[in-house]
Amino acid sequence: MKKIIILSFFVFSIALASCSDSQYEYRVPQDPEATILLKPDNNTECLEVEAVKFEWSKSVNTDIYTIVVTNLLSKEIITQTSTSPTKEITLVKGKPYSWQVTSSNSMVSKKAKSEIWKFYLSGEALFNHAPFPAEILAPLYDASVSKGAIELSWSYSDVDSADTHTFDIYLDQTDASTLNTADYSSTKKSVTLSSLGTYYWRIITKDNYGNNSDSGIFKFTVTE
Question: Is the pTM of this model over 0.70?
Fold first, then answer.
């Protein structure tokens, strides 16, 4: 009887060991990594007839990619998904766009975002393009800042890198329709604001060919 018990324990131990084989090992889910954007290239003109083919690198620990394309003039957003690092999307020609890809997988909640790239979609080559709308850097949307000297800052880009640019700054407490400074040549400006409350502002970016673009309205609050 004692021999039978020992033998049974030995068989059970072998079975238990076999269940710990590598094919049954539990692996901790890994966070996805950000992809690298490839095409259309950043700050370039994209010539397409029907659809734009977006391409990016494969990222590890990724099941699905979510691509977000934004019309920089109308602010319309197109969101699509793909299991491979490419996607064709039909867009309105003659408009500037930005795009970004988010990597994710079903095992973890964390996601990884790529850089944001811009391009101009044209049905045929143009002699000159409007600059991309300025990106507001500070104050950020809905930020609170102390009264007194406040620095406004923004960035810009243009397919036509040889163009020269100036900026019209609109700022008020109603709808950003009041011109504060015209033909400004820098991307930073200090303004003194003593009245408390919400301020609205926007930047019109102009090139030396008469083209221009509107950043859209941003707002911030001045406090004590």
Answer: no
